[in-house]
Fold this sequence. Notes:
Number of domains: 3
Strand order of the largest sheet: 1-2-5
Distance between the termini: 30 Å
Shape: extended
Oligomer: single chain
CATH architecture of the largest domain: Irregular
CATH superfamily of the largest domain: IHF-like DNA-binding proteins
CATH topology of the largest domain: HU Protein, Chain A
CATH class of the largest domain: Few Secondary Structures
Amino acid sequence: xxxxxxxxxxxxxxxxxxxxxxxxxxxxxxxxxxxxxxxxxxxxxxxxxxxxxxxxxxxxxxxxxxxxxxxxxxxxxxxxxxxxxxxxxxxxxxxxxxxxxxxxxxxxxxxxxxxxxxxxxxxxxxxxxxxxxxxxxxxx
Length: 140
């Protein structure tokens, strides 16, 4: 949900105008960010808890230059959802699962899968080229 979708939804569900809802959401965001910036935790019943968690200083490597850099200690915000919210989210995605390789590639037997020289997975019953002359996905 985007910021604008949140405002639209609150406007539909309440008696307040779009302007009043937008001001309320902006004020709420400002209060939350100020409170967290001051090092305080926020607990909202039915939603969860925003915690200020210290992150220790560490070293890292710049991926472009390879230079080793020191990252100073800082605070970060961690959100822990309420048990009720977490249960609702988990219940809503319970029916989803990762596909098996056979389902993913549309195969009836795993023996139909082979790897090409460049490491791509191919099936003996799938066409090797798509309409675009590439890998059949229609993407480059």
